[in-house]
Amino acid sequence: MIAPPDRTPLPRAFFDRPVLEVAPDLLGRILVRTTPDGPIALRLTEVEAYDGPNDPGSHAFRGPTARNAVMFGPPGHVYVYFTYGMWHCMNLVCGPEGRASAVLLRAGEVVEGAELARKRRVSARNDKELAKGPARLATALEVDRALDGADACASGETPLKMLAGTPVPSDQVRNGPRTGVAGEGGDGDLHPWRFWVANDPTVSPYRAHVPRRRRS
């Protein structure tokens, strides 16, 4: 008999570790987004680690800005950024305050509240695609910059909370180059920091960085 996922909230100490420890350990954990219409729960199946000043692919590589300020704060908080003028992406801050490392939540399986996620992801062909990719994940969970800085470890009713879930066994975890990262940060030999659950249908396809062409 398979035990149900553990609904115990993850403590802040879980996130107060090196990002390369936290990232693979987030696979199988449950993210709960509480909305006015009800909760949506997501089992994480794909993440990417970003290691601040040691990582040319990180938003925090060159230091703090108004955009990335949350990354320099306490662990367990949510960093949300807006990209390509269209999409939001969601991260969880890791390590000690001031270290600026974070895990990008790339994909997951909606395990509760699928009917709410479908209303936000009307283009999804099936439920496996509801949160298949970081922008789709944020859209399905109704996450935008208003949630930047939210505390995923706070007690009581909060808009976002991480639960223990069912950790993925290490032999089912795969890793490789991060998706769409340019330059040295996208080198899979130097930074094989994308982690995913083997053979899970909700994991997004890998895509190398493609430079954007400037309009003439």
UniProtKB/TrEMBL annotation:
Domain of life: Bacteria
Chain positions covered by the region annotation Disordered: 166-186
Presence of the UniProt keyword Transmembrane in the record: no
A Pfam family reported for this protein in Swiss-Prot or TrEMBL: Pur_DNA_glyco
A GO molecular function held by the record: DNA binding
EC number(s) given by UniProt: 3.2.2.-
Keyword DNA damage annotated: yes
Biological processes annotated in GO: base-excision repair
Alphabetized Gene3D superfamilies for the sequence: Methylpurine-DNA glycosylase (MPG)
Entry keyword set: DNA damage, DNA repair, Hydrolase
PANTHER family documented for this protein: DNA-3-METHYLADENINE GLYCOSYLASE
Family in the record: Belongs to the DNA glycosylase MPG family.
Protein name according to UniProt: Putative 3-methyladenine DNA glycosylase
Annotated source species: Streptomyces corchorusii (Streptomyces chibaensis)
